[in-house]
Amino acid sequence: MAKEIKTIGVLTSGGDAQGMNAAIRAVTRCALNKGIKVKGIVRGYSGLLDNDIIDMDAVTVGNIIHKGGTMLYTARCPEFIDPDPAKAEAAIKRAANIAKAHGIDGLVVIGGDGSWKGAQKISKHGINVVGLPGTIDLDIACTDYTIGFDSAVSIALEAIVRLRDTSNSHERCSVIEVMGRHCGEIAIWAGLTGGADAILIPEKPETADFDNIVRIIMENRARGKKDNIIVVSEGVGGSVELAKRIQNEIGIEARATILGHVQRGGMPTATDVKHASMMGTYAVDLLASGANNRVVAYKNGQYVDYDIDEALAMKRPPSFDMVECNRSISTYR
Fold first, then answer.
1. Of the listed 16, 105, 113, 137, which one is catalytic?
2. How high does pLDDT run on average in the chain?
3. How many CB atoms sit inside 10 A of residue 253's CB?
């Protein structure tokens, strides 16, 4: 017989992402409509260890659907990844016991694969868990979409469009660094849709070859182009140095702009709100059915779920087809 879930806990962990609040709202209201109580865990796993847990109702999540960030706050939890396995396991067991003391028998974890690993470990201590993909980086292999990605790309694209106006006015090259420490998807999507001359990503080191960048810039200048846009993923870095080198070695005025955490904040796009709402509802349905150790994904146009172990073992190939598309059309505007 499936385990009956009477109280669901919800937390956000790791980096914040637009749409997390919409997911919290969906989890809360869907659970309440099923007669399930909801507890909000403040500041992720760290807050769970600190016993920082609040009661949630329909009013608690009122008017948060379009707010950026996360109303439950977020934090890293070093105790869960202590180098001493015994200490890490003790922290996880203590977290599970605290959740149980509050009556929590089901847990929704909104975050990236690091957050899912914490959920995976808690699930072994008698609490059913479901993970939602909340990260702007689109770096989770099991899903075609992660909550926050569309908003982050939209912000990066707007910045590119604004900077192009200035770059064109001054006939300069703009080097624009976007977020993505290990994953270049924001750079790829923003670069392609922003008409970038070149996109530099960590998964393809050759994209950062300086001689190739110079060739692209000079070919476009020869065709009469007055400005250049180079989009750099955070994982490649060196944007300031690249701009200086372009200016010093080929004599074209260049400036670097690092967008940073501005890409995380502000109102989520309709796409992010839609996915967050659907995924949050799906997570509650899974827990109510007795499911455990699952993650929600959006795959081939459908909302599906995977075992956490299976999901974490998957590998996601970068969107090299989009990089190639941009390469083939970036010599013209």
1. 137
2. 95
3. 14
